[in-house]
């Protein structure tokens, strides 16, 4: 009889341990007590599970506010400890659930709350739930984008650090649980907000707003309901300018025409609201006419000459002396900025905004020495060296996203990341 009892007990014990979840398995349980920094669960009536210390995973919103009676999930760390309880972890289970949640946010393009915890030269470290994600500078909304002239990395990092501690609405752009990488975007949220507003505008519309920032490639203008568009340097005035600050300043109220709408990007033009002065250039100036002009730029290829406020011409390097001029240094020795000199008009191309000049008093071509300085290709007078809009607009090179981690690892501040001029005022 005793042998039978022992055999039955051994069988029951074997069955009991067979039913116990294995290490690494995810189990469900009901919270039966919370005290002394430990949470105990009833695991399917089989055993009491214990979650304590580091494994509580309180940084996750799902586990930060649990109560007795709540149904929760945990991962088995040890089947039975020294007191006969099963050691469980909210952390392991929580990490798996958080990554699944992030994948849903990404798939459904949902907006989530995040908090900036650190900045580096490539962007911002943002905590979303229990994970730390990376937001490249290019994914900041326009109002937060660092506009730093020349892409001064120190000034950019200083600007980015000002966001530490700030909450941001973001979307999950990409994630990889295996690599522990999470990429988020504030700009994606901003773009969604703009879509409905942009639907009320069309190409050709004239809008009025205020200059919000100046960069080497153009000016930004705010208008309407929080919209901001770019006026490229070539679309500000008909004349060639070296920098938008030559004719504009931050805070100026201006009118512009919408010339392109590309998703959330708005491109504007100021010059198209006024007549092109080159249309009537031949009514004022004639080939062979001698005119007085002011030298306003000395270039390697010649002199940029201002005939009036609207019309500028080019005196090529081969047309400013009877001898060959080899470099810009010689030109700078011969002429000074602001100098007024007589020139002869050689040619006029109104469509291309070109007007060729020769220094007054020079011998005609046939009379010149056969030694001639090599003639470089002439640029357009008004649109020489036209810059294209940069792609992250002088945007800083984005660093590879650091791994998402529970406790953010703040990178040492390098000298500083990208962008445009911090609203030159």
Fold and architecture overview:
It is a single chain. The chain is of the alpha+beta class and 425 residues long. Helices cover 16% and strands 34% of the residues. The chain has six helices and 20 strands. The protein has helices at residues 2-19, 90-108, 153-161, 187-198, 281-284, 328-334, and strands spanning 26-35, 38-43, 47-52, 71-78, 86-89, 111-120, 123-128, 131-136, 167-176, 181-185, 206-215, 218-223, 227-232, 253-262, 265-269, 290-299, 302-306, 312-316, 340-349, 354-359. The strands form four sheets. It has a five-stranded mixed beta barrel. Strands 8-7-6-9-10 form a five-stranded antiparallel beta sheet. A five-stranded mixed barrel has the order 11-12-13-15-14. The radius of gyration is 35 Å and the shape is elongated. The relative contact order is 0.13. The model is unreliable at 367-402 and 404-425 (pLDDT under 50).
Summary tags:
single chain; 425 residues; alpha+beta; 34% strand; elongated; disordered C terminus
Provide a short characterization of the protein structure:
With 425 residues, the chain is an alpha+beta fold. The protein is 16% helix and 34% strand.
Topology:
Blueprint: H1 2-19, E1 26-35, E2 38-43, E3 47-52, E4 71-78, E5 86-89, H2 90-108, E6 111-120, E7 123-128, E8 131-136, H3 153-161, E9 167-176, E10 181-185, H4 187-198, E11 206-215, E12 218-223, E13 227-232, E14 253-262, E15 265-269, H5 281-284, E16 290-299, E17 302-306, E18 312-316, H6 328-334, E19 340-349, E20 354-359
Parallel strand pairs: 3-5, 13-15, 18-20
Antiparallel strand pairs: 1-2, 1-4, 2-3, 4-5, 6-7, 6-9, 7-8, 9-10, 11-12, 11-14, 12-13, 14-15, 16-17, 16-19, 17-18, 19-20
């Amino acid at each position: 009889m005793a042998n039978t009892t022992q055999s039955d007990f051994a069988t029951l014990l074997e069955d009991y341990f067979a039913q116990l979840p294995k290490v690494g398995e995810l189990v469900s349980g009901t919270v039966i007590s919370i005290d002394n920094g430990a949470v105990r669960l009833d695991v399917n009536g089989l055993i009491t599970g214990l979650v304590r210390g580091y494994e509580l995973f309180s940084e996750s919103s799902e586990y930060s506010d649990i109560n007795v009676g709540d149904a929760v999930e945990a991962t088995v760390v040890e089947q039975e400890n020294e007191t006969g309880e099963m050691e469980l972890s909210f952390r392991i289970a929580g990490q798996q659930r958080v990554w699944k949640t992030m994948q849903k946010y990404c798939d459904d393009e949902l907006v989530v709350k995040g908090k900036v915890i650190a900045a580096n030269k490539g962007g911002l470290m943002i905590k979303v739930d229990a994970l730390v994600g990376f937001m490249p500078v290019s994914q900041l909304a326009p109002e937060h984008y660092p506009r730093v002239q020349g892409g001064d990395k120190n000034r950019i990092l200083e600007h980015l650090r000002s966001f530490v501690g700030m909450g941001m609405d973001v979307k999950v752009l990409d994630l990889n649980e295996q690599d522990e990488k999470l990429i988020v975007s504030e700009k994606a949220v901003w773009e969604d907000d703009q879509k409905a507003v942009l639907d009320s505008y069309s190409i050709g519309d004239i809008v009025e707003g205020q200059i919000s920032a100046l960069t080497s490639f153009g000016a930004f203008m705010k208008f309407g309901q929080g919209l901001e568009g770019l006026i490229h340097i070539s679309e500000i005035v008909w004349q060639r300018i070296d920098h938008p600050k030559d004719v504009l300043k931050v805070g100026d109220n201006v009118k512009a025409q919408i010339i392109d709408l590309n998703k959330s990007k708005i491109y504007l033009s100021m010059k198209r609201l006024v007549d092109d002065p080159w249309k009537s250039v031949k009514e004022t100036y004639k080939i062979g006419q001698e005119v007085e002009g002011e030298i306003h730029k000395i270039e390697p290829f010649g002199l940029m000459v201002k005939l009036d406020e609207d019309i500028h011409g080019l005196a090529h390097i081969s047309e400013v002396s009877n001898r060959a001029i080899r470099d810009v240094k010689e030109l700078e020795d011969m002429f000074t900025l602001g100098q007024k000199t007589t020139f002869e008009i050689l040619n006029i191309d109104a469509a291309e905004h070109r007007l060729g000049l020769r220094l007054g008093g020079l011998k005609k071509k046939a009379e010149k020495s056969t030694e001639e300085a090599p003639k470089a290709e002439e640029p357009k007078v008004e649109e020489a060296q036209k810059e294209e809009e940069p792609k992250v607009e002088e945007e800083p090179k984005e660093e590879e996203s650091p791994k998402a981690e529970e406790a953010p690892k703040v990178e040492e501040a390098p000298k500083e990341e990208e962008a445009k001029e911090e609203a030159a005022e």
